[in-house]
Amino acid sequence: MRTRVVFNQKGGVGKSSITVNLAAMSAKHNLKTLVIDLDPQANSSQYLLGDAATYSAEKQALEPNIENFFEDVLGTTQQKGLIGSAIGSILKSRSKGLDHFVHQTAFPMLDVIPASPTLGALEHALESKHKIYKLRDAIQALVSKYDRIYIDTPPAFNFFTLSALIAADRVLIPFDCDVFSKRALQTLIENVIETQDDHNDSLEIEGIIVNQFQSQAKLPREVVQQLKDEGLPVLNSMLPPSILMKESHQKNLPLVHLSPEHKLTLAYQNLFSEIESIE
């Protein structure tokens, strides 16, 4: 089993699109694949599950979800008093595995654990009770059930992102050829290296995914070349801009199912082949 985290502290760089489409490629290659959505915006969840995973003031988030998993980690059945505390301790010791929170998608070999908009409310309790390794332990228990796991993360370096990095083998970093993104990249990489040193020495940066790459424009080419000159692991397979991605989101169909021969789909296929070939 290989676990990949798609991570960037900057929003709007395509994390969810990349997570879902690489996972869909993985499933299409007959690899049993799970997406774990840790972003309260739930874009990956909605991409794969459509209306079932949408939420509003009138509609609750789809359950079970990743927030329910972390509630289970905390033993948060919220009983009161001494007896309730004792029961909570017993329930905590019998916490459910991640497979209890999985939803099947409409696509063969592809499952998802959806996000929740209120996931952030648990962050302080999880930190104060030192639950930072619980996601890693739960993912390791899935080794016989999945070949690939992709984790979508929030645009922040917080408890949930750190949990994902601790649980993962590889990190994929989306990058959108923006000068501000380049400036933020150093901090991001420093956070990954610190996580390697302190928590997960097997974690590797698998590569920087250049998204929305306009090959005919001078500035994107210069920015990418600067990254390469600095020795950063820029992947060769770059993703071009295309209106097809918006159509893919709207129809809740990953590219490989919507338009297999489109240039953007083929770019994702090349990207998937490239990362799968990395030892």
TrEMBL record:
Cross-referenced SUPFAM superfamilies: P-loop containing nucleoside triphosphate hydrolases (SSF52540)
Top-level taxon in the UniProt lineage: Bacteria
Classification via CDD domains: ParAB_family
Pfam families in alphabetical order: AAA_31 (PF13614)
InterPro entries according to UniProt: AAA_dom, DNA_Partitioning_ATPase, P-loop_NTPase
AAA domain sequence ranges: 2-205
PANTHER family, A to Z: P-LOOP CONTAINING NUCLEOSIDE TRIPHOSPHATE HYDROLASE, PARA FAMILY PROTEIN CT_582
Protein name: Chromosome partitioning protein
Native source species: Acinetobacter baylyi
